[in-house]
Amino acid sequence: MRADARKNRDHVLAVAGTAITEQGVDVSLRDIARRADVGLATLLRHFPTREALLEALLRTSFDEMTAQAGELETSSSPEDALVSWLRDCVAWTTEYRGVTVLMAAAIEDTESALHASCVTLRAAGARLLARAQAAGAARTDIDGTDLFALVAALAWLSDQPSLAPRADHLFDVVASAILTNAAGADVPGERRPRSRN
After folding, report:
1. Distance from C-alpha of 56 to C-alpha of 78, rounded to nearest angstrom
2. In 3-39, which ranges are continuous DSSP H helix?
3. How crowded is residue 43: how many other Cβ atoms within 10 Å of its Cβ?
4. DSSP run (H or E) holding 115
5. In the 8-state DSSP scheme, what is residue 97?
6. pLDDT digit string (tens) for 57-67?
């Protein structure tokens, strides 16, 4: 790819990231093109579908979250690693409004541009969960699919204006329910809730 074309593509991605953060994943491609000061045809030449645009935008974050899981496996206790990764994954998925719906659909759709990245991310979480389960630190009646669903549910809470103030508290409740030895104790890396209204 020529340097000017790459610069143009990177600019479109940066604008798309801002637009999706502000308006959600359903933001109009035409609006993204207008905000990037390029024609719709130019945007579609780089990203022929919405999913292709999202895959390019999210790939780095997917890779970072997957790499983080690998680092946590060797640097933290099983329960700390699981909760830390879960917390960061929820925080990341709330950055782009509505992305959890697309991620859940992409898991089932092998033709989706997001499928491979989502499957890899889910597998990274599943490994952390299995490690915690093997250590007796996490309940054994959930799997990686359940963990991925909990990420989506917790991210959804943060996206609801009336529930967002309780998101940290509810994260702690869910994390405590996952960990076998956390009942009544502080969750590793626990942040105090912003509000108890």
Report:
1. 31
2. 3-23, 29-36
3. 22
4. helix 115-134
5. T
6. 888 788 889 99
Question: Across all residues in the chain, what is the average pLDDT?
Answer: 86
CA distances (Å), origin 47, targets 57, 106, 114? 10, 17, 13
Say how far apart CA 101 and CA 105 lie, in whole Å: 6
Residue 20 DSSP class: H
Whole-model pTM above 0.70?
Answer: yes
Distance of alpha carbon 138 from the chain centroid: 21
- Name beta bridge partners: 138: 179
> In this structure, is the dihedral angle defined by the CA atoms of residues 78, 84, 90 and 96, taken in order, positive or negative?
negative
List the structure tokens of 94.
């709330």
| Cβ atoms of residues 73 and 127 within 8 Å | yes
Q: Mapping DSSP to helix (H, G, I), strand (E, B) and coil, where does residue 138 land?
A: strand
Rounded to an integer, the average pLDDT of 120-129 is: 94
pLDDT at residue 51 tops 90 = no
